[in-house]
Design goal:
Blueprint: H1 6-14, H2 28-52, H3 57-73, H4 80-89, H5 92-98, H6 105-113, E1 117-119, E2 122-123, E3 136-139, H7 144-153, E4 164-167, E5 172-175, H8 194-200
Antiparallel strand pairs: 1-2, 1-3, 3-5, 4-5
Helix pairs in contact: 2-8, 3-4, 5-6
């Protein structure tokens, strides 16, 4: 009968008590991936909300839906981000900010809510009013002093977009072109991750 020597018995006995290092499976990389993805999404949404003044979720979902429908009409999903940014840039409060008549989105909304902003010589108190080609934006005489102060405090940078013609003497803005696609004048704030923001409001 075959007999195992002592060393063989020892190896056989020790194999039942082998300890495994759980960290050797390298599962941390998946954890880091998901945590970094979540972190990037939160930071992108926070930056977007700070830049556009904390728009409501339902409102943003509506904009994403409109942008998706327009993008599907031309069967080109690449333009989804451009349609979405175009709808945002057409907002009345955003146009006032681009023209440097105000220092922030909050200042623009205060002027609009206090009925100091006119579109085509009619008072508009809706901050989300979308401007179109040919529209003229003007300010009431009561707000001229405040707007002059904003102009003095503004550094007038980035430059006014090419689709706007601004008269700082008459306090008027003329929309020359359709505000739909991003052009070279808007590259200064393209650091926003709009793709991540859109994916957050697709559902």
């Amino acid at each position: 009968m075959f007999k195992l020597n002592r060393s063989t018995k020892t190896r056989k006995r020790n194999c039942y008590y082998k300890f495994f290092d759980q960290n050797s499976y390298n599962t941390s990389r998946y954890k880091n991936f998901f945590s970094n993805n979540y972190k990037d999404t939160v930071l992108a949404n926070k930056s977007f909300n700070l830049y556009y003044g904390g728009l409501g979720k339902n409102y943003l979902k509506g904009l994403v839906k409109k942008s998706t429908n327009k993008s599907n009409q031309i069967q080109n999903k690449i333009n989804l981000k451009k349609f979405f940014s175009g709808l945002l840039e057409r907002r009345l409060d955003v146009v006032l900010l681009r023209a440097h008549f105000v220092l922030s989105i909050r200042n623009a909304r205060q002027l609009i809510s206090h009925r100091h902003v006119l579109v085509n010589k009619k008072v508009v108190n809706d901050c989300s009013f979308l401007l179109c080609k040919g529209d003229q934006v003007s300010l009431s005489k009561k707000s001229h002093k405040l707007v002059r102060y904003y102009l003095v405090m503004s550094d007038l940078w980035p430059l006014t977009p090419s689709y706007l013609q601004v008269s700082y003497r008459l306090f008027q803005i003329q929309v020359l072109e359709d505000i739909m696609f991003l052009n070279s004048t808007t590259k200064t704030y393209m650091w926003l991750n709009l793709n991540t923001v859109i994916n957050s409001y697709v559902k």
